[in-house]
Amino acid sequence: MSRKKIMIIAVSALTLIALLVIAVPVMAADNTAPTTPTQITKTNKANVLVRLLLVQDEAKVDAFIAKAVDAGKITPDQAVKVKAFWTANHEKAATYAKRLILKRLLNAKDEAKVKAYLDKAVAAGKIQQAQEDKVLQLWETLHSPAPAAAQ
To answer: I need a surface site. Which of 43, 78, 135, 139 has the fewest CB within 10 A?
Structure first.
């Protein structure tokens, strides 16, 4: 097998593992102030839906929707539509977010920052030490200088 094929397989396997463990909890843990009804614009609606898609716990989604209905931000009919939208699309959004985080980690220039981010994820129980080691090994492989060609 060529080196390129091995790298593609390794990146794919590592991507699946890391993305399943890291991205969604990190994105869902965002603590921002709620948007008041007077601040809701088309852009804010899109941002709210994107954030909702990243939540993986269906009970939390139901609670968020119920809270919005109780606060008068959406109608019960809109709540049904939002829930249907979440059901149809949340897995795709989570997969995309996981890929994006791994790509950003692998493209980072500073290994210390990558290690610090992964150490926090291990300490929080979001990934295992073996997964951190694999990501760091892949980062080092991608960022090591190419060997000089034999002449």
So the answer is: 43
